[in-house]
Structure formats: C-alpha cells, structure tokens
Amino acid sequence: MDAVTVLAYLIDTIIFPDMAMMLPNIVAGTVCFWQIWSMLENESSCNDARWADVAQRIMVDKTERHFDIDLHELKHPERNKNNDTTATSPGVE
Predict the structure, then answer these.
(1) For residue range 23-72, what is the model confidence (pLDDT) as tens digits?
(2) Domain span at 54
(3) Fewer beta carbons under 10 A from the terminal one: N or C of the chain?
(4) Residue 89 lies in a domain
(5) Using an 8 Å Cβ cutoff, are 40 and 55 in contact?
C-alpha cells in the first residue's frame, strides 16, 4: 500500500503539477477505509452482539469469501443433517 501512495504522489507532482487533486490524500483515505472495513468484518464474524448481526447483513464474512465454504453448514449442523440424506459420516456404515 505504501507503493500505491508513493505512486499517487509521483503522479500528483510530476504528471499533474498544476492541478490541486491531492491524489495521495485520496489514496490514503481509501486505504484507511478499506482497513477499517476489514477490521469490522473480522470483529463482526467472531462476535455475537446485536451490532455484529446487523453488520453481517451488510458485510460478507471473510471465511466464506476466502475459503469458499458456507458457514451456515458449520454453525447449524443439525439443520444440514436433516436436509442432507445422502451424506454419511466417515467410519459409519
């Protein structure tokens, strides 16, 4: 991310020296927003508070996104046991 900020500074000073775009500030603000959003995703994933439930309706759980699994299967295994009649447990015949 530091390289992106440096690149934005160079673009702002070398390519657009006469325009007051403040491109490094925009890039830094975007990176800060992205990091805060990531921290809220992490906190809401491992918290049972009411605000976390509301946040999870807006944010995607990182576990689902990075590992491509449905967390509802892990959170409520009894629901999936009733819905999935073809799956068998290992070692059970």
Answers:
(1) 888 899 999 999 999 898 888 878 888 888 888 878 776 666 677 777 66
(2) 2-83
(3) C
(4) no
(5) yes
